[in-house]
Amino acid sequence: MYRVFLVDDEPFILEGLTDGVDWGAFGLEVCGRASNGQLALSQLQQLNVDILITDITMPQMNGLELIRASRDLMPDLKTIILSGYNEFDYVKQGLTLGIENYLLKPINFEELYATLKNTTEKINASRSHLSFTDEEKHILQDNIFYRWMTDQISEEAFGERVNMLGMRPEGAYALAGIIRLSPSDDEQLGKLRQEIHANLAAPCFRDMEGDLVIVFLGDRPEACTRLAEEAIRDLMLRHGSDMYRISLGTVEPTGGGQRLSYENARKAQEYFMLMDDNGIARYKLFLSVDSAQAVKVEITWEDYRSLLLTKEVDTLLGRIEQDFHKLLAGANMDLQKLRDMAIEMIVRMKMEIQKFNQSDPASAEMHAWLFRKVSQSKRIDDLLAAVKEAVIVIIGELEEADRSPVVKLVVRHLEQHYADNLSLKTLGHKFHVHPAYLGRLFQRETGEAFTEYLNKVRVEKAKEMLRHSPLKVHEVSAQVGYLEPSYFYKQFKKIVGVTPNDYKARQ
Questions:
Q1: CB 204 within 8 Å of CB 134
Q2: How far apart are CA 228 and CA 175, in angstroms?
Q3: Reduced 3-state DSSP string for 402-469
Q4: Which of 4-18, 163-177, 230-244, 433-447 tops mean pLDDT?
Q5: 346: part of which helix (H) or strand (E)?
Q6: The HTH araC/xylS-type domain covers which part of the protein (predicted)?
């Protein structure tokens, strides 16, 4: 993504631009903002910015002075001026500085969007020759393909971005495959990704859940299916089926249909609970066409989703019972079709709460038991009771997951990678969140600033090492992520109340 910096001395303009523009739709993200030119220049010296959007008339340093000074730092910086003054002298000076556009307030958003589109196209063209490291390619590829598979980017913008990466994915049809490791292993998935890239002509990326997604493209539906079957067969021959859970969605036309294929592949991952062995979970094998159609036609999932997320247990249970009886009264409805519908319902609910909570082994075991109970029900009453029980369990899990999913991901990452070089900037980049917003959200959710929280995690790990390992204090300091032992000493004493040496001596 290209990075945008906003400057205006009117707070409501800054807030309106930050929150009112879908920056992601243009492949952009707001990386900072300031209320005057002097503050902006100070921040720009520490940031890598692609587009500067600035007011002209501001205290301390006006917008034109800011543009001149910023160009000394970043000669290729693209600039857009916002101004409440339609004065020719300002326009002339702006044009002399090579601005992209001079927009008058109040802002015409259509004109702003057109300017952003043109500006990003210019940047794309100027950087098409740039080379990326493997890590940078993976980060860009993950972002671009995830947005394409979830229909969050236009086909035109998608084409521009994959061209920038030197990729040419083509095909009238797409079939999404998902590979999930159990337990999750980033290093192993990274190796598998490299193997797929080397041996398979199909795009591959990591999604927001951390799974590996392969997009099988072809001119005909059968070509996608054949490519997927061959690739998965080769993968299982090399690695076996015990390590991976592989699911396939449905073949869908590109140009929007790839989203459905991806959604179905994610659903199929949950159907492993109904399988006797790992194998391959194919979505189309688990839901008959008639019953799938019944779910689409008779049940409004958005109503269910709303009741689930607001945790209205009694209302949701009543709605499910009402819909069950309504479906049962319909023509050609039988127990098997109701079973299929119930399984689809539980899968959707389970996928919904996974956005907020990472499943643990106990939770997975409970879900597997609920799936078996639904699939083995012999009577309508037993089936309905099993579905209601599943809903109660799922809402209970949702109540445990009220913390922001991004914060939960960050906390889990800190626990696992506390020794790495961590900052709000690096984590914001990893989880696709602006660092400033992530910092505010983290403090609101945890009650502590990011740095304070990270220091506590590191100090707790250090205490374990001081108790149970022969390492010296300066070695422990390095092991838990502190480059400067003096800073480690200071934080340790602040949090524990004694120095690391005193703590070790007491053990």
A1: no
A2: 8
A3: CCCHHHHHHHHHHHHCCCCCCCHHHHHHHCCCCHHHHHHHHHHHHCCCHHHHHHHHHHHHHHHHHHHC
A4: 4-18
A5: helix 335-354
A6: 408-506
- Using CA atoms of 423, 426, 431, 433 in order, give the dihedral in degrees to the nearest 10: 80
DSSP symbols for 115-176: HHHHHHHHHHHHHTT----HHHHHHHHHHHHHHHHTT-S-HHHHHHHHHHTT-----SEEEE
In order of 52, 117, 154, the CA distances from 110 in angstroms are 18, 11, 17
**Distance (Å, rounded) from C-alpha 223 to C-alpha 82?**
51
Q: Which residues contact 200 (CB under 8 A, 6 or more apart)?
A: 214, 231
- Which domains, and CATH codes, for the chain? 2-127 (3.40.50.2300), 134-266 (3.30.70), 289-399 (no CATH), 405-506 (1.10.10.60)
Q: What are the tokens at 78?
A: 């693209």
SS3 282: strand
The H-or-E segment that residue 78 falls in is: strand 78-83
pLDDT in tens, 112-127: 999 999 999 888 877 6
What residues contact 104, with CB distance under 8 A and at least 6 apart? 82, 83, 84, 86
